[in-house]
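Retro notes, item 3 of 5
We never archived the inputs for the iron/sulfur cluster complex last cycle. Fixing that now. Sequence and ligand:
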Amino acid sequence: MTQTYFRRGFGLKAEVKPAIDAEYQSAVVERIRSRGFVDRFGDVKVRLAKDFGFCYGVDRAVDYAYETRHKFPDKRVYLVGEIIHNPHVNYRLQEMGIEFIYPNDGVFDFGHVTSEDVVIIPAFGVTVKDMKALQALGCILVDTTCGSVLLVWKRVKNYARDGFTAVIHGKHLHEESRATASQVEKHEGGKYLVVRDMSEAELVGAYMTGRAQRMSRDAFMNHFAGRTSEGFDPDADLAKIGVANQTTMLATESLAIGARLREMMAESLGDEHAETHFRSFGTICSATQERQDAVLEMMQDPPDMMIVLGGYNSSNTNHLAHLCRQYVTTYHIEDATCIDVDVGSIRHKPEIDAEAPVAVEMEWLPPAPFELGITAGASTPNNKIGEALLRILEIRGIEADL
Ligand code: SF4
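Structure as it came back at the time:
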């Protein structure tokens, strides 16, 4: 039988490497890295976080997408959603003739895909329902779902198998959280609930333990509308819970949410009860953790200002920027075009919310000499970091000698 499902690439790494390196590498970033992540350009000291940019999952997904194009030059190649949350990488793939299937109200329409086509599944994965629909089409599937995401899926499936409701710390519209939540469908009666932050975890904990100030059933269901599995009943389905999270959330918040829910259960129903009715497993991926840790390490001796690069809808980038803002003036920019060399301005998103309006600042560079910290989310290629840095230096009249 002809193989139609691939999740280990096509052995064409060497063939696509030159193109990937040429498109995503940066000489200035390599120079800073080779000098111990600290470098000086004129009167600007640049400090690069020790872990930044493309993670292993993104590296792999981009690699497979290029390999797929190389392997099937004459076939129609589709991508479900975006390969990663970076507009430039997505744009490059489109330029290579890969067609993106965007969801409509969260629903993908595969009506135009035929068994002759190739479909790439992004690093975030797809829902159980979408996977079944694609398999039924008989097309070639190139699955780039990250191993760290698969690990979370396994946890959630086990929760469902054992009768625990998966309480997922994440953004319910994010591709990864939707795919993760859908894993409960693999076991009959599997349930999930997605919580956005600690304040929502408190609502869940209060309801779960029957606290006096808990919401009414209707208010609870209204509040979490669209964020639970079908037929979710908070009176029955919060008896046993297992905590998981979108891999790119703030690690400290995910851990705190798990700990708080267990604490509330133990306070109300006893520690023994919590032992058997509560499960948790840290499912932040190591790449997200390392990027957050690298920023925290830098913040022990903060630079004068921080630039965080990455898509405004990139969860891990938003969390990196949020962490930095606790310590130092931080500008979350999408790419170098946010820095206008002619007028000297910067356009940035000043809040963690992906939809928050952008702001434009004129007097944003500190007086010289100053220290500039830089990091980037897991979906930002190095060339985008380098371009932004060169523009900042240009505003200060510094030409990097590379
Ligand atoms: S952020 Fe983590 S889970 Fe997501 S693609 Fe990268 S390594 Fe995988």
